[in-house]
Amino acid sequence: MQLLADDELGATREQFTRPLPAAYTRAFRAIADDAQQELTVVERAGELVATFQLSFLQYLTHLGGLRAQIEGVRVKAAYRGQGIGHQVFQYAIQRAATKGAYVLQLTTDKQRPGAKRFYESLGFVHSHDGLKLPLQK
Question: 29-56, pLDDT tens digit by residue?
Fold first, then answer.
């Protein structure tokens, strides 16, 4: 949770406190219990330096294809710009392909133009427009 709160947008929506809010523990358990969810952390010399979540979504379209969605990608501030993000995505791409996904998709906040450029450098293309409807305030 510290990594997810460690940027300008995460700091506004996450609550990294001791103890952590119980909602995070419930979410972690639900992810751990769901075979279609993978929460991955990256360590360097025993230090947590990055994290991301892969969700596998079964569809009827694309001949009943499986999509992978990557969310919550964070690299610890002190390690940004060292190629860790690239390595994270290479692993995530390979993992999604190994599991049989026909596409790996993501969303990025419009307030993160640098992230969008990074994703495009990895081969992600802006192919769809996404819309969101907030259900809770």
Answer: 999 999 999 999 999 999 999 999 999 9
* Beta pairing partners, 53: 39, 71
| Domain ranges for the chain | 36-121
- Which of 57, 78, 71, 58 lies closest to 115, judged by CA? 71
42 contact partners, CB below 8 Å, separation of at least 6: 48, 49, 50, 51, 84, 87, 88
The pTM assigned to this predicted structure is 0.85
CATH, range 36-121: 3.40.630.30
Q: Which residues pair with 14 in a beta bridge?
A: none
